[in-house]
């Protein structure tokens, strides 16, 4: 994925992050950005004949450019716990597409969020389940172990039976085969793997919401700064109507994707994130 063609300079940083001081001749600490990816977690990552693609891959490419790394190497995590552990231990530099939890925030540094996730359920369109705790009593729900969704469902629906799977693709496969009638997880993942004519996402409002961003080791302040700049500029460019940025993001979460967010919804989300965490540029009528 190429770099953005028109990035507004106004996108900046979280107040707690030190400003960048790169010079054109500055040397990167490493030539390779070592990234954790979570295989088959659409719309973030999916395997292709030539490697991997997805929104997470595209965001990592923007971070690579901002951090002045020559390439990105991928470490496929066997589980969420494994991926987080790789960043904590230093075996990997970064992982993108990780939901915020307070527990993880004590061990890692989070970037600006580039999406907002929420715990929901994927089930058949004609189900009698409506997403309320009472309707879930006696039901079996498939979840990925060690994820926020598993913890949330355990809390909000104590009458449900949770069947845990180690990997997202295993949980999705079990749902598609009818081994579990309901699948619990993050909204983006469930929406990207759903069919509007055959399945329903419940409830209408997620049980819980969390920011989705990138994580780095707490000692990696310079990489965190580069990551925040890359994500902030990406969101600003989308809001400014940059064609390349909109194609990149809309492909995975926009109107024609399975997620199906409108461009206005994406702009509103990005505007909210930037207005509360970074500098945001807006169009001003000179005559006003």
Textual characterization of the structure:
It is a single chain. The protein is of the alpha/beta class. It folds into two domains: 32-115 and 210-277, D-Maltodextrin-Binding Protein, domain 2, CATH 3.40.190.10; 118-202, D-Maltodextrin-Binding Protein, domain 2. The protein is 34% helix and 23% strand. It has ten helices and twelve strands. It has helices spanning 55-66, 80-89, 102-105, 133-136, 148-156, 168-176, 187-192, 221-239, 243-253, 263-277; strands at 32-37, 46-48, 51-53, 71-76, 94-99, 108-110, 115-124, 140-144, 161-165, 182-186, 199-202, 209-217. The strands form two sheets. Strands 1, 4, 5, 6, 7, 8, 9, 10, 11 and 12 form a ten-stranded mixed sheet that branches. A two-stranded antiparallel sheet has the order 2-3. A hairpin with a 2-residue loop joins β2 (46-48) and β3. α1 (55-66) crosses α8 and α8 (221-239) crosses α10. The protein is globular. Mean pLDDT is 85; it is low at 1-28 and 284-288.
What's the structural blueprint in terms of helices and strands?
Blueprint: E1 32-37, E2 46-48, E3 51-53, H1 55-66, E4 71-76, H2 80-89, E5 94-99, H3 102-105, E6 108-110, E7 115-124, H4 133-136, E8 140-144, H5 148-156, E9 161-165, H6 168-176, E10 182-186, H7 187-192, E11 199-202, E12 209-217, H8 221-239, H9 243-253, H10 263-277
Parallel strand pairs: 1-4, 1-5, 8-9, 8-10
Antiparallel strand pairs: 2-3, 5-12, 6-12, 7-10, 7-11, 7-12
Helix pairs in contact: 1-8, 8-10
Q: What would you say about this model in short?
A:
The protein is α/β, with parallel strands linked by helices and 288 residues long. The protein has 10 helices and 12 strands. The protein has 2 domains: 152 residues, D-Maltodextrin-Binding Protein, domain 2, CATH 3.40.190.10; 85 residues, 3-Layer(aba) Sandwich (D-Maltodextrin-Binding Protein, domain 2).
